[in-house]
């Protein structure tokens, strides 16, 4: 099967590449369901094209992810280039260009030479169970190769104790990020639909340890059979039409308790947790994935790396203050699937109230916001709606007028929070012209400017009215984006810089959205063939990515 990279996946690879051209590390953030393995494969392909004898290692923390990532990479790359180093799989292959390895197995051997280290689920970097084994491995790899390049991938660039990047950390900044809202707007993820409940656990008395609730307190709370019975019955009454439901539980006993309650109510259910052997786990997963069973209760093992697009209901039964667990668990249900309109998220652990929006959860060392919460919870149907709404769109409940606020409220203390920080509603415009011209930004960067307009009318200062986007000519990432946009427009440039403005008449469907105070163009689609107006010079345009050259972005010092 041929896998074709999406535009944003190519953008991610270009941005990560540009970052490691000038720095030893790059951090890429892509939501669950965004296809990060395709990005990793493309990054590996690009690296192997630069250095024929390159050694690449992909590092992860779980055996099931090792096997899963090997299979995913093999759908994009030549399987013969990929080796696996994992003791549990009885494979110790280090002679191939690419090694997919578990940190538990590779961390204790004599350090091999590595040019490029790709760390999957990089938010686990220093929170694994082996007291910093990732960081110890990276130190040994850097000692073996001072020019080592490290690229980290995650959907959650934070942990309970804070962000995973910063000036004093391994990753200084995010090289590329795609948000959940953007992915929903582009149709690559489906929208989460959150419902609270009157039967949610009372978490007010839970004590904290290392940023999350103490496990012994949580264990005691979720062991109450009467409350769990009420929660399961309540949830079943709210998931009519849902075909594939997962229940995130706090521990194995809680997982089995939820499963037993479902069975007593006539539902077909299976369980997945760490006490099951590999055969039993595979059998249970197979029954759920095959559609024979509607419900699956699990304990954290599915919070990362489990891909099953039909999931259309996620039930949060585990109280937690971990933003990683929150985002990763909800992400199991955001992949689109034929006939699936959205994903219902039922929250019985007060997770959303505690952690905030799914795409911008509260993180300890992240600058907090103040003021009114972006949404509030309807007391009748428990739907979360925007704070300014005066009546619930689901049940019609009339909210009372808000009281004047005297003190600024910390966002974490507020109990009314939405599942996404704000709605992202893309706007589609039909334009009749695209104008291409050179442009110099305020800070002196030379850019290619594209303006999409409905009429060939210029402003008093000589520019066309319309939606614009800019491509910085010194950025390899921007140049790759420009190349794809030129393909969208079906036009060639004579070179960069070029003198005369190029007018491309036709019909163009431009999808844009708000990104802060500015508009951001998400996609451009030609719906009618244009007739480009050629400028003086019609020589071919070379983006300079075919062959390495002096001071080229291809020369990153492997």
Keyword list:
alpha/beta; 6-stranded parallel sheet; Rossmann fold; 558 residues; 8-stranded mixed sheet; 25 strands
How would you describe what is shown here?
The protein is of the alpha/beta class and 558 residues long. 25% of the residues lie in helices and 23% in strands. The protein is built from 13 helices and 25 strands. Strands 4-3-5-2-6-7-1-10 form an 8-stranded mixed sheet. Strand 8 and strand 9 form a beta hairpin. Helix 1 crosses helix 2, helix 1 runs antiparallel to helix 13 and helix 8 packs across helix 9. 43% of the residues are buried. About 9% of the residues have low confidence.
Query: Which regions have little confidence, pLDDT < 50, spanning 5+ residues?
Result: 127-131, 367-374, 404-417, 530-555
Per DSSP E runs of 2 or more residues, the count of β-strands stands at 25
Total domains: 3
In round numbers, the mean pLDDT is 82
CATH architecture of the largest domain: 3-Layer(aba) Sandwich
Strand order in the largest sheet: 4-3-5-2-6-7-1-10
- The CA-CA distance between the termini, in Å, is 31 Å
What is the fold named in CATH at topology level of the largest domain?
A: Rossmann fold
Question: What structural category arises from helix and sheet content?
Answer: alpha/beta
Measured as a percent range, the helix fraction is 10-25%
CATH class membership of the largest domain: Alpha Beta
**Total number of helical segments?**
13
Rg, Cα atoms, Å: 26 Å
Q: Assess the beta-strand content as a share of residues.
A: 15-25%
């Amino acid at each position: 099967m041929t896998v074709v990279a999406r535009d944003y996946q190519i953008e991610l690879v270009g941005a990560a590449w540009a970052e490691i051209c000038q720095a030893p590390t790059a951090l890429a953030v892509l939501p669950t369901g965004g296809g990060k393995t395709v990005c990793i494969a493309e990054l590996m392909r690009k690296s192997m094209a630069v250095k024929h004898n390159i050694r690449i290692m992909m590092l992860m923390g779980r055996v099931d992810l090792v096997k899963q990532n090997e299979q995913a990479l093999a759908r994009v790359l030549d399987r013969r280039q990929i080796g696996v180093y994992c003791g549990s799989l009885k494979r110790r292959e280090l002679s191939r260009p690419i090694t997919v390895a578990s940190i538990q197995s590779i961390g204790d051997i004599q350090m091999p030479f590595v040019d490029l280290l790709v760390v999957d689920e990089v938010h686990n970097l220093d929170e694994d169970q082996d007291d910093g084994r990732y960081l110890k491995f990276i130190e040994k790899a850097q000692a073996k190769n001072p020019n080592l390049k490290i690229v980290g991938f995650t959907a959650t660039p934070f942990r309970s104790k804070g962000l995973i990047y910063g000036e004093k950390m391994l990753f200084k900044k995010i090289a590329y990020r795609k948000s959940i809202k953007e992915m929903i707007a582009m149709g690559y993820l489906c929208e989460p639909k959150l419902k609270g409940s009157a039967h949610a656990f009372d978490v007010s008395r839970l004590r904290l340890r290392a940023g999350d609730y103490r496990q012994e307190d949580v264990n005691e709370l979720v062991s109450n059979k009467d409350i769990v019975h009420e929660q399961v019955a309540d949830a079943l009454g709210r998931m009519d039409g849902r075909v594939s439901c997962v229940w995130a539980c706090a521990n194995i006993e809680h997982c089995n308790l939820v499963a037993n309650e479902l069975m007593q109510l006539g539902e077909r259910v299976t369980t997945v947790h760490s006490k099951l052997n590999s055969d039993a786990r595979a059998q249970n997963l197979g029954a759920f994935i095959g559609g024979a069973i509607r419900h699956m209760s699990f304990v954290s093992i599915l919070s990362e790396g489990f891909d099953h697009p039909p999931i259309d209901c996620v039930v949060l039964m585990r109280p937690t203050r971990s933003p990683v667990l929150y985002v990763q668990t909800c992400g199991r249900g955001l992949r689109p699937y034929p006939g699936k309109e959205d994903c219902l998220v039922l929250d019985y652990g007060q997770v959303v109230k505690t952690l905030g929006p799914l795409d911008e959860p509260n993180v300890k060392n992240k600058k907090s916001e103040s003021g009114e919460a972006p949404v509030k919870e309807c007391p009748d149907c428990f739907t979360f709606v925007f704070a300014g709404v005066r009546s619930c769109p689901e049940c019609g409940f009339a909210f009372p007028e808000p009281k004047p606020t005297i003190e600024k409220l910390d966002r974490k203390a507020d109990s009314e929070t939405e599942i996404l920080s704000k709605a992202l509603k893309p706007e589609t415009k039909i334009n009749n012209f695209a104008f291409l011209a050179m442009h110099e930004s305020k800070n002196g960067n030379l850019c290619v400017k594209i303006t999409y307009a409905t009429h060939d009318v210029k402003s008093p200062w000589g520019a066309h009215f319309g939606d614009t986007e800019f491509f910085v000519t010194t950025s390899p990432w921007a140049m790759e984006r420009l190349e794809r946009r030129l393909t969208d427009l079906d036009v060639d440039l004579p070179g960069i810089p070029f003198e005369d403005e190029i007018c491309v008449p036709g019909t163009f469907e431009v999808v844009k959205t708000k990104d802060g105070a500015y508009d951001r163009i998400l996609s451009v689609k030609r719906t009618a063939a244009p007739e480009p107006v050629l400028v003086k010079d019609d020589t071919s345009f070379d983006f300079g990515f075919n062959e390495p050259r002096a001071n080229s972005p291809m020369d990153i010092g492997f």
